[in-house]
Design brief:
Structural class: alpha+beta
Helix content: 40-55%
Mean pLDDT: 87
Number of helices: 12
Strand content: 25-35%
Radius of gyration: 28 Å
Low-confidence stretches: none
Order of helices and strands: HHHEEHHHHEEEEEEHHEHEEHEH
C-alpha cells in the first residue's frame, strides 16, 4: 500500500478506532490511536490525529476530548444508546419466531453498534418461561419475501405444512401449492402470520409464516384489492383468537372490575365498557366465536360471564360440557 493512499484511509481508520474502542468510561488517548493505526500500516503524528478528529466532528461524529483522568477521546453520541441496544438484544433473544442461530447472528451485529467495552454488557441471557425457539431457519427470509411480494404487488406460491403425532412434517392439500395474494403481516401470540386473499376460495385467509415452505414470488398481480381497501389488520388480529377461524359476532360479557385491564389488553382502549354496578361492568366486543375464544374465557374463570347473544352462550356451555365429558370416567 502506497504512503499517499494509506494516508487517505487514515481518517476512516481513526473513526473506526473511536467507534470500536471508545466510550465515555473508556476514552482512547492520542498515543493509543497512533499505535492502532500502526497496526494497519499507517503512520500518524499527533497533529494529524487531532486534525482528523476535528474533521470527524465537523462531519457529524460527536467526539469529546476528556482532559481529566481517564483522559482521551471518545464518541459521545451514537445512533443507538446502550439502553436501546439492550432492549433490542432482549427482544431478539426472547423472540420465539427467530431461531437460536439467527438470534446469535443478529446480536453479534448489534454488538458492533457499541464499543467493545459496552458490547460485553449486551452478552446477556434472557429467560422467558414457556418460550421455545422456532426450528424453521427460513422464517427470517420468508418474511422478507412476503414483504417483497407486497411491495411489488405480486401473488405468491408456497407449500404449507402441519405436524403429525409422529413429529413429522406433513404438507397440507396433499402437497399442492397454495396461491395467495399477500396483503399484510401481523404478530399474534409469539408468531408471525401472513394475511392474504385466496382468489380461488374468494376469501381472506391467514397463514403461520414459519409453516410456509418454498415461497415463490410469481408474475401474477395480487387479487382481492377491493377487500382490503378498508381492511383493518389490527382489528382482524384482535378478533381472530389464536388466529383460528370462527364466525364473527358481537358478544356481551359481564366482568368483575378487576378484569378491566384484561379486556383493554385484548380488545384495545376503544372497546365498549359500561358499569353495571359497583363491582361489575359489561363489555361488548366483536370476536370470532371459536374454541380459542372459549378457552380464553375459561382461563379468566368465573370473573367473566357471557351475557349474550343466547346462541353464543349456549355454544359455550355445550363446548364446556363436551370438554368435561372427556374427563369423566
Amino acid at each position: 500500500m502506497g504512503k499517499a493512499y494509506s494516508q487517505k484511509l487514515r481518517i476512516l481508520y481513526v473513526m473506526q478506532i473511536l467507534l470500536r474502542y471508545s466510550d465515555e468510561e473508556h476514552p482512547v488517548s492520542q498515543t493509543e490511536i497512533s499505535k492502532r493505526l500502526n497496526a494497519y500500516g499507517i503512520q500518524a503524528d499527533r497533529k494529524s490525529i487531532y486534525d482528523d478528529i476535528k474533521i470527524l466532528n465537523e462531519f457529524g461524529l460527536a467526539v469529546e476530548n476528556r482532559r481529566t483522568k481517564p483522559s482521551g477521546f471518545y464518541v459521545a453520541e451514537r445512533k443507538f444508546e446502550l439502553p436501546e441496544l439492550k432492549l433490542l438484544v432482549d427482544a431478539v433473544q426472547s423472540s420465539k419466531f427467530i431461531t437460536a442461530k439467527k438470534s446469535n447472528e443478529l446480536i453479534r451485529k448489534l454488538e458492533e453498534l457499541a464499543s467493545v467495552h459496552e458490547a460485553r454488557s449486551l452478552q446477556r441471557q434472557v429467560f422467558v418461561g414457556n418460550r421455545i425457539k422456532t426450528m424453521n431457519e427460513s422464517i427470517y427470509y420468508n418474511v422478507d419475501k412476503i414483504h417483497q411480494a407486497i411491495s411489488r404487488n405480486r401473488l405468491i406460491r408456497f407449500h404449507y405444512y402441519e405436524w403429525t403425532p409422529r413429529k413429522e412434517m406433513h404438507l397440507r392439500r396433499n402437497g399442492e401449492a397454495y396461491e395467495i395474494s399477500p396483503w399484510g403481516l401481523t404478530w399474534d401470540d409469539e408468531n408471525y402470520y401472513m394475511v392474504g386473499y385466496d382468489g380461488e376460495a374468494g376469501m381472506i385467509k391467514h397463514f403461520r409464516v414459519d409453516k410456509m415452505l418454498d415461497i415463490e414470488i410469481t408474475d401474477q398481480p395480487r387479487k382481492g384489492k377491493e377487500r382490503f381497501v378498508k381492511f383493518d389488520l389490527a382489528s382482524y388480529a384482535k378478533k381472530v383468537f389464536g388466529m383460528f377461524s370462527g364466525e364473527e359476532r358481537m358478544v356481551r360479557m359481564i366482568c368483575e372490575n378487576t378484569f378491566a385491564g384484561a379486556m383493554i389488553d385484548r380488545f384495545g382502549r376503544e372497546v365498549m365498557m359500561h358499569p353495571v354496578d359497583a363491582a361489575h361492568f359489561v363489555v361488548s366486543a366483536a370476536v370470532n366465536v371459536s374454541p380459542q375464544f372459549f378457552g380464553w374465557l375459561v382461563a379468566l374463570g368465573k370473573g367473566v360471564v357471557i351475557e349474550g347473544p343466547e346462541d353464543v352462550k349456549d355454544e359455550f356451555t355445550e363446548w364446556v360440557r363436551t370438554v368435561m365429558q372427556e374427563y369423566k370416567g
